[in-house]
Amino acid sequence: MQFPRCGTNKAALSCVTDAEVIYVSGYEGRDVRVSCYYDQGYESHEKYLCRNDCGYSDVLITTSEKKKNKYLIGDYKSAKKFTVTISDVQHKDAGKYWCGVSRAVKDIYAEVRVEIKPDSCCDNVTKVQGYDGGSVSISCPYESVDQNNLKYICRGNQPSTCLQQAVVTSDSKQTTQFTLTDDRKSQFTVTIANLTQKDSGSYLCGFHRNSGLDVFSAVELEVKGQRTQ
Hints:
The protein is mostly beta strands. The chain contains 2 helices and 17 strands. The strands form 4 sheets. A 5-stranded mixed beta sheet has the order 1-9-8-3-4, with no helix packed on it. The protein has a 5-stranded mixed beta sheet with strand order 10-17-16-12-13, with no helix packed on it. Strands 2-7-6-5 form a 4-stranded antiparallel beta sheet, with no helix packed on it. The longest helix is centred in the N-terminal third of the chain and has 4 residues, at 10-13. It starts with 9 loop residues before the first helix and ends in a 5-residue tail after the last strand.
């Protein structure tokens, strides 16, 4: 990826086209990392992240500072990229940024758009019931374009940690209590066996996206006492 050759004034910054925009997504209260690539020959140049018109007062951090306030920067010269980690992001951190590489005449810029979402899910919740000692199946829909992506389910309603805390995934497929099957078309199903009252609560069905945030649907499971015959 190459940065557009732009000047540092407001008009020149507008030369960045949509095809060159870097899109970054994250959850409130978590960290977000922005990766900015540069051309060979700029390894020794100072890099920085800025907002607004990218004037001196708009610069958030430079590679000569390493760490400043909630920003941490690193320059990986062999990969010809620098990264900026923004910690504990909030809704106000969403918006337009600029990756900058300093030059003697005109700096080089790439536009960055940061999207911040609440770390909770979802507006719609599917309710499922089961009985103590029995089993229950949870259906998790997905789009056909995601049929080859990793699927998983976790407890709770926190998307940012769901994959790390998944009780079963389409890679592992089965544990002693959870079994995941995928129809490879439009949904995967998670069967929970040997239900107890402790299994009641919130679950998230998730599938991984290679770009952007993973996609989730919410389920509320209620486990009742043993079914009467």
